[in-house]
TrEMBL record:
Record carries keyword Ribonucleoprotein: no
Keyword Isomerase recorded: yes
Keyword field: Isomerase, Signal
A Gene Ontology molecular function term of the record: isomerase activity
Record-linked Pfam families: Chalcone_3
Name used for this protein in its record: Chalcone isomerase-like protein
Signal peptide positions (record): 1-24
Length: 183
């Protein structure tokens, strides 16, 4: 398999079990500013054929209800990459994963893809992309703590965060780890 094809499979983490993250971190500044008092609900490590791809952490507001209802609550999903990945492929893979949750009109997918390609740079080991959801506000993406872009579509937020948190996630073990063990 060519390297580019392999990276396609890696980008959004479609084929690996999750493991707890090895390195705990404090609340990122961008998360603390947007969700004062944020706490870590869960974390996990994405591996693909044994290769460490990224560590994921789900930050939630104080009083966040336990369970799997993520769409109506403030949260931040932080991905810290362990490998270099192409930003455009991260965006493309994200659309592929969003389609797992149901039909997605081509025009809508195309608009989201264009926006995500502008949001997501090529990443190298240690880079962080953090997606922030606050109901009634645009989804915000931060790259290494700096605001990269905003997307003002509630359906985008539901589908994007559903890649990791939705019941149709291709990574059920990672989903469970992020949701603090909730099924």
């Amino acid at each position: 398999m060519k390297r580019r094809q392999a990276l396609t499979l890696l980008a959004a983490g479609a084929l690996a079990p999750a493991a707890p993250c090895v390195f705990a971190r404090g609340v990122p500044a961008e998360v603390e500013r947007a969700i004062p008092g944020a706490r870590l609900l869960g974390d996990g490590r994405l591996r693909w054929f044994g290769m460490h791809i990224y560590d994921a952490r789900l930050w939630v507001a104080p009083g966040h209800p336990s369970g799997t209802d993520y769409a109506g609550h403030p949260l931040a999903l932080e991905l810290e990459y362990a490998r270099a990945l192409d930003g455009a492929r991260i965006a493309e893979r994200s659309i592929e994963e969003m389609r797992r949750a149901g039909a997605l009109p081509d025009a809508q997918a195309g608009g989201w893809l264009t926006a995500m390609k502008q949001c997501f740079p090529d990443v190298k080991p240690g880079d962080r992309i953090t997606g922030l959801q606050r109901p009634g506000e645009p989804t915000r993406f931060f790259v290494n703590g700096e605001l990269a872009c905003e997307l003002a579509d509630p359906e985008f937020a539901r589908r994007f965060f559903g890649i990791w948190l939705g019941p149709d996630s291709s990574q059920p073990a990672l989903r469970s780890a992020l949701l603090g063990g909730a099924r």
